[in-house]
């Protein structure tokens, strides 16, 4: 039928830290553009980034579920990380709705970018747990 879910997760995990870093860099650039008055292109890039953020969050959920039985500590760490990241991302909604672009830039720069960077702390543990699950 399809590819082995574990192999897909392992492949995704190999690139997850780099993907989170890429997202963090892109969103830091959005914050800088908002601060420089380049609102339209910055908001366009932010909108285009939502699919990538959703993919990253999906990776976190699926990998956490996959590791739940064989590596509960890693699973819990991923779940906790995803919840922290979601809380940060949810704070963008009201600022965007109010078109408070200073708040959007601050949240991106100080909260979202640093939260995405925190994935590096989990990366080795996730990859090791996925290898052990094979």
3D architecture notes:
With 134 residues, this protein is mainly α. The mean pLDDT is 94. It is elongated. It is 87% helix and 0% strand. The protein contains six helices and no strands. It starts with a helix and ends with a helix.
Short structural summary:
The chain is mainly α. The protein is built from six helices and no strands.
Label the structural class. Answer: mainly alpha
Rg from alpha-carbon coordinates: 16 Å
- Main β-sheet: number of strands, strand sense, barrel status? none
How many beta strands in the DSSP annotation? 0
* Separation, N- and C-terminal Cα atoms: 19 Å
Please tell me the overall pLDDT. 94
What fraction of the residues are assigned to beta strands by DSSP?
A: under 5%
Elements, N to C (H/E): HHHHHH
Structure characteristics:
134 residues; mainly alpha; 6 helices; 87% helix; 0% strand
Q: What's the arrangement of secondary structure elements?
A:
Layout: H1 5-35, H2 39-67, H3 72-90, H4 92-97, H5 101-117, H6 120-133
